């Protein structure tokens, strides 16, 4: 094979890698809810990372214009991802530990979940895909002894949602008009005062990407109406990643993504029931008037998601 053919191959591969990065950036900012594009946006970071190969390929071929373009694409892609790895400054307040878990109906091992709650000193737990069987199993495993207050909307298969709390719960609400259950309550934390707690689970885009987009917009509207006289903690399987523009809209203004606050980076939570590691992060905590100092994923045997555990500092109002 001649050097010219090799060079053409390198340049072509570099161009394709750079184009992949451009596609990833476009998907990151795209709002159009067409299902193939929504699903592809979950892989936007991988596409952006490929642009680095474009820089290497063009530089190896001494194609400096192409290398410059690839550097620019790489830089723009990095600008969308690097902030996830930079922690915000801390705040004063009362620290609690919260967990978000998707149970895969009643597939998750209840004993393992309760042991995580015990050993990690979980004070608030939001749960998705909560069945009545899972409620009974978790109770028998001792969850109600650790977190004696609860507001639950169990259902068939994926529809159920729940909140367990160490603290008394009041102002319970279930929001109508969603395919799956969306709920909220107020936790009365002695050291911090009232804290609004939401548990969300919009449908996945493979159900219907138009419904997915509409539900995220409606959940965003619910958060815009959240009480402003207290901190807010939102846990859920959002069926959306940081690279979905609709999720970033929710994690804006008053609200922030806990993982981004803590500089935890891409916390990939799904899927865990395959032969390969989790690829995307669709489980999140959103916070208002609160700040996460640490967020990590936790194995949950029997489920198809990893759970999230966050150390959250909540502000006290009225001082």
Automatic annotation (TrEMBL):
Q: Which GO terms describe its molecular function?
A: catalytic activity
Gene3D superfamilies documented for this protein = Endonuclease/exonuclease/phosphatase
Question: What Pfam families does this protein's entry cite?
Answer: Exo_endo_phos
Q: What protein does this entry describe?
A: Endonuclease/exonuclease/phosphatase domain-containing protein
Species this protein is from: Nocardia mangyaensis
Q: Which keywords does the record carry?
A: Membrane, Transmembrane, Transmembrane helix
Q: Domain of life of the organism in this record? A: Bacteria
Where would you find the membrane-spanning parts of this chain?
6-30, 37-58, 64-86
Q: Which residues form the Endonuclease/exonuclease/phosphatase domain?
A: 99-304
